[in-house]
Structure formats: structure tokens, C-alpha cells
Design goal:
Strand 14 and strand 15 form a beta hairpin. Helix content is 21%, strand content 21%. With 273 residues, it is of the alpha+beta class. The strands form 5 sheets. The protein has a 6-stranded antiparallel sheet. The protein is globular. The chain is built from 7 helices and 16 strands.
């Protein structure tokens, strides 16, 4: 049996993977029952319709042929839904994050992506461009609610970019990406697909360059529950992410980071991710 670090849940090999590559997949972290609860809850929320400021699906006749307008991402569902908050603060996730941060984590954001067949991908980007965690960076926990691969719009990452500078993005190709920002892959590196099964959770550093493929499948959703976290030593975060939450569910408000970032203006970095 592989040696575990004293008092921690991750093995030395898992920690080494995260530190050297910038990401780590934990297979089956969420059980089939966890996956079913999240899938059913968010499909029910979709049927219930818009939530002001967080979720705005439109009928097919108003979508102009863009399926993601019918199934947009649900931003910050933990602010209005108890199940989303429970899974954002799931003990298994928080324990792993404690190892990855080397300190207690704070939950900053939750999102749910539906990504039905025909949904566009997301251009290469870096999460801390948006979250503006300081000092240090954020960590994402990306939970697959469906199997995710290259055909149905799974994620790809650029390994070894965890220490890369946060770039000022250029404009993405709107024909394949639903977001407007895109960053460049550093010389000598390349994106690799992250193939996941339902219940697997991918953790990655906030500087890691990543994106997703379009969903070119005929009949497969690629749903995902995605949360972002900061360490307890964080002093500042982007203004859209307050309040943050401790493991016990109590709220904490951090100083809003008003740094203009690498673009020299605030608008790009201030948009919710």
C-alpha cells in the first residue's frame, strides 16, 4: 500500500501529481447516488425556469438556434439552493482541498453546466483571471455528472501551467466557444483531454490553462457541477465571489480585489466566471 502523508487524505503520489502537473483526478469521489441527486435537482431547476441574476434559460423559439441559451450555465446556485451548497461544502471535497492548499479551504463559487448535444465549447482560459484570489490562487473542483470525453464536450487542460503568469486574453472564436476570452498555450506545451466518468472530480490550480470541447454527440449531455475555492489565508478576491463559506457553512466576507489585472482595465477580470 502506498504511504499516505500523516493526517491527510491524499497520497504522496497524488500530491506530487497536483504540484508537478497542476491538476489531479479523483475517480469516483461522488457516489452514483450523489450524481443522481445533483443531476435530478438541476434538471428540476431547469424546468422551473429563470432565477434572477443567476440563471436565464430561454425557450427554443428565443434561442436563435443556440442550444446553450436554452441550457445556460447556472451561476452560484449555492446562493439559492441548499443541495448545491451542501455539495459545494462536501466533506470529501473539503478534505482534499485542505491537502492541496495546505490549509483550510473557503468555498467561493458554484456553477452547474448542462451542455447538451450541440453545445459550444469553452476557449482556453485561467480561472484566477476571474476570481482574483490574492495571495496565491484558487483551486477548482470539477465534478462530472455524466461521463465526459472529447465527443460530448469534456475538459482539456494544459499540464505544467500551474505556475504560468495570468494572461490578458484575446478574443475567442465565437463559432466554437460560448465565452469571449481565450489565452495562448505556452511554447512546448499542449492541451490534453481529461476523460472522466460520472462521479469523478478533477481538481486544478487557478493558473492552469484549460477549456472544453464542443459537444458533438448526438444524444449525450455533459453535465458538470463546478466549484472554486480559496485558502483560509486569502486576503482578497474578486467582488462577485463574496461571501465565501467555511467548512461549517458559516459565511466570510473578504476584501474585494480591485486590481486591474494583466489587461490594464477592470472590466475583463470583473466578469463572473
Amino acid at each position: 500500500m502506498e504511504k499516505r502523508l500523516s493526517g491527510n487524505v491524499l497520497t504522496e503520489a497524488q500530491l506530487r501529481q497536483f504540484l508537478t502537473e497542476g491538476y489531479l483526478v479523483i475517480p469516483g469521489l461522488f457516489t452514483p447516488e450523489d450524481v443522481r441527486l445533483l443531476r435530478d435537482e438541476f434538471m428540476s431547476l431547469h424546468k422551473q425556469g429563470p432565477v434572477a441574476g443567476l440563471f436565464n434559460p430561454v425557450p427554443a423559439e428565443q434561442a436563435g438556434g443556440d442550444i446553450l441559451k436554452q441550457y445556460p450555465r447556472f451561476m452560484h446556485p449555492h446562493r439559492v439552493n441548499e443541495l448545491a451548497k451542501q455539495y459545494m461544502l462536501h466533506p470529501k471535497v473539503m478534505d482534499i482541498l485542505s491537502d492541496l492548499f495546505g490549509e483550510e479551504p473557503l468555498a467561493a463559487q458554484s456553477m452547474f453546466y448542462y451542455k447538451p448535444p450541440g453545445g459550444k465549447g469553452q476557449a482556453l482560459h485561467q480561472d484566477n483571471f476571474y476570481l482574483l484570489v490574492e495571495p496565491g490562487t484558487c483551486i477548482a473542483a470539477w465534478a462530472a455528472i455524466d461521463p465526459a470525453d472529447e465527443e460530448n464536450g469534456g475538459l482539456f487542460v494544459v499540464p505544467k501551467t500551474q505556475e504560468a503568469e495570468i494572461q490578458c486574453p484575446h478574443e475567442a472564436d465565437a463559432s466554437v466557444s460560448f465565452t469571449v476570452h481565450e489565452v495562448d498555450v505556452p511554447a512546448g506545451l499542449k492541451p490534453v483531454p481529461v476523460i472522466m466518468q460520472a462521479g469523478d472530480v478533477l481538481f486544478f490550480n487557478g493558473s492552469v490553462i484549460h477549456g472544453s470541447y464542443p459537444n458533438t454527440s448526438r444524444d449525450r449531455f455533459r453535465r458538470a457541477f463546478i466549484c472554486h475555492y480559496a485558502g483560509i489565508s486569502t486576503d482578497k478576491i474578486g467582488k462577485y465571489y463574496n461571501p465565501l463559506y467555511r467548512r461549517d457553512g458559516s459565511a466570510l466576507v473578504l476584501e474585494a480585489n480591485l486590481d486591474n489585472g494583466p489587461c490594464g482595465h477592470e472590466f475583463a477580470a470583473s466578469a463572473p466566471h
